[in-house]
Amino acid sequence: MRVLAAMSGGVDSAVAAARAVDAGHDVVGVHLALSETPDALRSGSRGCCSREDADDARRAADVLGIPFYIWDFAERFREDVIDDFVAAYAAGETPNPCLSCNEKIKFAALAEKAGALGFDALATGHYARLVDGELRRAVDDDKDQSYVLAVLTAEQLGRAIFPVGDTPKPQIRAEAARRGLLVADKPDSHDICFIPTGDTRAFLGAKIGIRPGAVVDAETGARLAGHDGVYGFTIGQRKGLGIDAPASDGQPRYVTAIDAATATVMVGPAAALGVARIGARHAIWTSGTAPAGPFDCVVQVRAHGGMAPAVATPVDHDGEPGIEIVVREPLTGVARGQAAVLYAPDPVRGDLVVGSGRIVDTE
């Protein structure tokens, strides 16, 4: 089988490519140039798509003895991931750009080009497993990336390979060292890859500009502070609210709602953060078919954490497939723009991804 191995320059994708070679596939490595400033250097574990990363990927391909190319997807990445990220924050949402990158870049734009060039599958270093065509959590819970892959369709999953999902990360590093891959000890990337400084608020401020508004007490309606833009806040946030005085009961305040239309950030007590119902659109069912009716599941609303048992029902939102989710145990920190990923509820198949949707409202 002809396999295109996406090589980021990190240890996971290097070992994934190596394992694809070991499996007897005809493997070609490709590094995606996603940054419009590729000459910028990484800062430890921050940033990606630098010249350093491209060089690391090339060296790994040389060790493996496979052809290697660099494809420029920077413009597509800016339009489909960065611009979407900025627009979502401007609208008071909290998006996860990794989902957009997987959905629109790696398993759409890249996979389409791979198919056009005659490749049968795309191999990546994601920590997830495919078992009989079903997407499941990785063996390493701490590194599991099934959440950010839940936006993939059954067709996309059918052309994907995740060679490292069955192995804990420390063993992947040890294997890379045995293979002579120089990235064996390279730090994992953290934060948002296209914000190497790690300062998301400053990045968004430079993109969106000042859009002043008020921080308001959700219970009394009193104005507590001003702000430069709703993009500086997310649901559940406690610090950086700009409030000088404590609440009357002495308890901390949290962001409970964001209204981008009026530039209003509502704050209240921790008890106000609990969510019992989640509405989601852009539903994707990893089997390719929506369940016939309500079903039990476990919903996850953040890449790591934010899980609760729930009942999910496929619905129609003005012609768009959606999901209504009733949570059995209140969840906190649930924000519009996040993904609601549904897993099977039973102990045996609890690592199975059933589907996902983009959160549009909560109660």
UniProtKB/TrEMBL annotation:
InterPro entries in alphabetical order: MnmA-like (IPR004506), MnmA-like_C (IPR046885), MnmA-like_central (IPR046884), MnmA-like_central_sf (IPR023382), Rossmann-like_a/b/a_fold (IPR014729)
Keyword Hydrolase listed: no
CDD domains in UniProt: MnmA_TRMU-like
Protein purpose: Catalyzes the 2-thiolation of uridine at the wobble position (U34) of tRNA, leading to the formation of s(2)U34.
Species of provenance: Gordonia defluvii
Occurrences of domain tRNA-specific 2-thiouridylase MnmA-like central (ranges): 202-268
Annotated compartments: Cytoplasm
Protein name, entry field: tRNA-specific 2-thiouridylase MnmA
